[in-house]
Amino acid sequence: MFNKEILSEIEKKIVVSENPFPNTIIENFFPLEVAKKAEEEFKNYNTTNEAGVRGAEHFQKTKRFSNRYEDMPYTIKKIIDFLYSKNFINILEKKFNLKNVEPDWSFHGGGLHESFNGGFLKIHSDFIYMRESKLRRVLNLLLYLNSNWQKNWGGSIELWDKEMKSARKSVLPEINKAVIFRTDKVSNHGFPEPIRCPDNITRKSIALYYYIIEKTI
């Protein structure tokens, strides 16, 4: 499904901006047929039965998720395998000036995310340390799987300045669009306004997180 040519093309597309914190926004991330196949699998895969609602309602609403890799559909697994591969991580390390990056195969907080009409995610910075470990999160990767997503539905991920005064970037969650960004105490992001998609449509994404092992002093 994935080869060196696809890896090379993705590497060319990853151009890191420092505004408002290190990030890259990539359209046409994979060959479209791959993203379309993953979207179709996601639609037929019942995340509701996997885990239910995540988070307090004042912070995020109607978000459902699945983090059980072994139960995920074939194409989605292949996408995750590729994005967690050493070859792809080498590219991330080079682009974001990092070393010894590790994927999170436990999908703590990650996996398949799905939000329904009225859903939102308040602007926030993510947890940095994995509980009871020396792992520090350094990167988020979000791949969107939403064909024909309409702008008036909202749901754009927003990247805010460190003072939490304004959004510096806003990205519609359109199919085959990826957002990768550094995570720290000021990497503020979210989609704070309730989405207005039809009841039979959801905002779908694959969320993957990357860590490094903190050295003891």
Helix content: 10-25%
User: How many distinct helices?
Assistant: 4
Total strands: the figure is: 10
The end-to-end span amounts to 43 Å
Q: Give, in order, the helices and strands.
A: HEHEHHEEEEEEEE
Helix/strand class: alpha+beta
Q: What is the CA-based Rg, rounded?
A: 16 Å
Oligomer: single chain
Largest sheet: 10 strands, antiparallel
* pLDDT averaged over residues: 90
Low-confidence stretches: 48-56
Overall 3D shape: globular
Strand content: 25-35%
Gist?
The chain has 217 residues and is α+β, with helices and mostly antiparallel strands. It has helices at residues 4-13, 32-44, 74-83, 86-96; strands at 23-26, 60-66, 102-103, 111-124, 135-144, 157-160, 167-171, 178-182, 189-191, 203-213.
Layout of helices and strands, plus pairs?
Blueprint: H1 4-13, E1 23-26, H2 32-44, E2 60-66, H3 74-83, H4 86-96, E3 102-103, E4 111-124, E5 135-144, E6 157-160, E7 167-171, E8 178-182, E9 189-191, E10 203-213
Antiparallel strand pairs: 1-8, 2-4, 3-10, 4-9, 4-10, 5-8, 5-10, 6-7, 6-9
Helix pairs in contact: 2-3
General description of the model:
The structure is a single chain. With 217 residues, the chain is an alpha+beta fold. The protein is built from 4 helices and 10 strands. The chain has helices at residues 4-13, 32-44, 74-83, 86-96, and strands at residues 23-26, 60-66, 102-103, 111-124, 135-144, 157-160, 167-171, 178-182, 189-191, 203-213. Strands 1, 2, 3, 4, 5, 6, 7, 8, 9 and 10 form a 10-stranded antiparallel β-sheet that branches. Strand 6 and strand 7 (167-171) form a beta hairpin. Helix 2 packs across helix 3. The longest helix is centred in the N-terminal third of the chain and has 13 residues, at 32-44. The protein starts with a helix and ends with a strand. Mean pLDDT is 90; it is low at 48-56.
